UniProtKB/TrEMBL annotation:
Reactions the enzyme catalyzes: CMP + ATP = CDP + ADP; dCMP + ATP = dCDP + ADP
Gene field: cmk
GO molecular function: ATP binding; CMP kinase activity; dCMP kinase activity
Name of the protein in question: Cytidylate kinase
Species for this entry: Shouchella lonarensis
SUPFAM superfamilies membership: P-loop containing nucleoside triphosphate hydrolases
Length: 225
């Protein structure tokens, strides 16, 4: 039986994980799993229901009683919450500002990790997030840690927001990204950190095609072994 291959791509906010992971998956003909979208969807739903975002148990209960699905498409992963599409709703500044808090709760992460592992089980898959290589799939065949300067990550997020017609302020984004880095890296449960066996790729001065090719070659090298 052919062994399936899992690729873990981790890194801080704005490092290009989603865009790169999707393109790498397409090139390899692997399944792409956007784990960040799962936390964003829960954050959006919790805000909409006016839940206390500091209450991890209530958030985990909301997740358990709701239907969350990811549907691959040529442009992006389409996200549904209880049958309603929320793909654009989960990318707003309000969700950006709160998703680190929601994802910091142990009860939430445990519930999400189980779902993510189930999605990847028995499949050739590329998963991106913040703790894929260290917690979700510690035995992943290829692990990559993408990073970039705060300035560059804010610039990318600023352009993304403008393209989608959302209000965006560059200096505010820089502050929010720096704050999120601190929150993600210092949280108690499954913090953002590089797996010991991950390959670090600093994308600050790299084009997307360069990054995609670098990861693609890492995977092909692994497959050739």
């Amino acid at each position: 039986m052919k062994k399936t291959v899992n690729v873990a791509i981790d890194g801080p906010a704005g490092a290009g994980k989603s865009s790169v992971a999707k393109k790498v998956a397409e090139r390899l003909r692997f399944l792409y799993i956007d784990t960040g979208a799962m936390y964003r969807a829960l954050t959006y739903a919790a805000i909409k229901k006016n839940l206390d975002l500091h209450d991890g148990e209530a958030l985990a209960d909301l997740l358990s009683e709701s239907e969350l699905s990811l549907v691959p498409s040529p442009e992006q992963t389409v996200v549904y919450w209880d049958g309603s599409e929320v793909t654009d709703d989960i990318r707003t500044n309000r969700v950006n500002a709160q998703v680190s808090l929601v994802s910091s709760h142990q009860a939430v992460r445990e519930a999400m990790v189980g779902r993510q592992q189930a999605l990847a089980a028995g499949k050739d898959a590329v998963l991106e997030g913040r703790d894929i290589g260290t917690h979700v799939l510690p035995q992943a065949d290829v692990k990559v840690f993408l990073t970039a300067s705060v300035e560059e990550r804010a610039r990318r997020r600023h352009l993304e927001q403008q393209e989608k017609g959302f209000p965006s302020h560059f200096e505010q984004l820089k502050q929010e990204i720096a704050k999120r880095d601190e929150l993600d890296s210092t949280r108690t449960h499954s913090p953002l950190k590089k797996a010991e066996d991950a390959t670090v790729i600093d994308t600050t001065a790299m084009g997307m095609d360069e990054v995609i090719t670098a990861i693609y070659l890492l995977v092909k090298e692994k497959l050739a072994q």
